[in-house]
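Researcher: Next entry in the queue.
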Amino acid sequence: MATAPVPRTLTRAQQARRQRVIDAAMSLGLGGGYEAVQMRDVAARADVAMGTVYRYFTSKDHLLAAALVHWVEQLDARLAQLPAQGATPAERVIDALDRALRSMGRQPQLAAAVFTTLASPDPAAIQCQQQVSLVMEGIITRAIGVPPPPDVSDRARILGHVWYSALVGWVNGWSSMSRVHDELAVAIGLLLPTAVYAPV
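Model: Structure for this entry, 200 residues:
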């Protein structure tokens, strides 16, 4: 059920309704994963009409992808209040990404639901996937700090890809959270060596 795109600028009331829909989807996903998020149930829990849900989200995948955007934006806001800790760029990046891992590890059903949408071909969900990549790149770049390597954007983007692919293994059940941490640590060590930033 597709509708016209949501206007770029929402009123405060529209923003509040949209956020209620996201919160409802996250609540349902928290308890039952991807299959538990049904648009009719989302509308009921958010106390909005079905048409309102589809006004803001073209599909379930779009809605859950937007929930992932909200999740990483919350992480970004927390890191702005309490920046990543560590004496080196590598230590700060692993601290920032570990915070994301801990948050998702506490809510595995929801993490599985939102990460499922990262493979969605829905164009609206793809836009959310791009937003997630940009937010994660910003989180990693800020954790690297100054002076940054000349190719900091490339390194941050690659680390974001490793973060995503390692988490997919955990979501799909063939990897553990400790293994995700270890894989991130290896990638960070390779891309952010302590001694020098010169490309190899």
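Model: The mean pLDDT is 90.
Researcher: Noted, moving on.
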